[in-house]
Write a structure and sequence with these properties.
about 250 residues, mainly alpha, about 0% strand, binds zinc ion
């Protein structure tokens, strides 16, 4: 999923949002730049939580990380890996009908089509969530909280046995790499062009991709709420099991 969707989902899970929770909710994609194995970036949330219970910021950060990851199952598990009885996750399933158009609009080799069509679906979801609500502003505020970012990078450095400065730099880069505006199909497509160039040295047809993102938002409108409630129920069960749901005082 895209960043504003992650912040939105973390807020849904806990009924509140804070800078630490927001930063945690996007952190697996930041850690992915430091630890290339997905199991490291998206699959160690429970361990991180266990190492973070003594400090409120670090605890909320770790809770945010779990809402995002794949093990324990966070929203990326249901979006990417497995949803209901489908072959893969929700975003791959919804992306099936967009594969051909995605190959054309993003100038892709055919074997990358399904993967990138799932990104288009994710951007359709990001558009639904981020065009109406202040999740981009919440992220901008979080990225300005340098004291918290330093504290969290110290913890990430300890946890992954890396120099905290590497994480600090990654957070900075990530802030410039994502769309924190009240998103539009056009702003998401323009940002995707930069991401595709950075990652694959490819330029996309921005207007065509913007139209595809609008189509994706339409495609998910029929059952996104169902998906959201399914994932929410399961993730809240996971937090109950981990004894990490909010207490009455939070
Ligand atoms: Zn992710």
């Amino acid at each position: 999923m895209y960043p504003q969707t992650h912040v939105f989902f973390a807020e849904k899970v806990f009924g509140f949002i804070s800078d630490a929770l927001a930063l945690g909710s996007i952190f697996p994609d930041i850690a992915g730049g430091v630890c290339p194995r997905r199991q490291d970036s998206h699959g160690r949330g429970a361990e991180l939580l266990a190492a973070s219970r003594d400090d409120e910021d670090l605890f909320n950060f770790a809770r945010g990380v779990i809402t995002h990851g794949t093990d324990p199952k966070g929203i990326d598990y249901y979006g990417d890996e497995k949803y209901l009885s489908f072959e893969k996750g929700y975003c791959f399933e919804k992306g099936r009908t967009l594969v051909e158009e995605t190959i054309q609009a993003c100038h892709l080799p055919p074997e990358m089509g399904w993967w990138k069509a799932h990104n288009i679906i994710e951007m359709g979801i990001e558009l639904r969530i981020g065009s109406q609500s202040p999740y981009g502003e919440i992220l901008s505020k979080t990225f300005a909280n340098v004291r918290l970012i330093e504290k969290i990078c110290k913890q990430a450095g300890r946890f992954y046995r890396q120099d905290p400065a590497v994480f600090f730099q990654r957070v900075r880069n990530f802030a410039n790499y994502i769309d924190t505006s009240r998103v539009s199909a056009r702003s998401l497509a323009a940002c995707y062009d930069v991401q595709m160039f950075t990652r694959h040295r490819l330029h996309i047809d921005v207007d065509r991709v913007a139209r595809l993102i609008l189509k994706a938002a339409e495609i998910v409108s029929e059952d996104f709420n169902e998906f959201l409630h399914y994932a929410l129920r399961d993730v809240q069960k996971t937090f109950a099991h981990l004894k990490a749901l909010p207490t009455a005082t939070e």
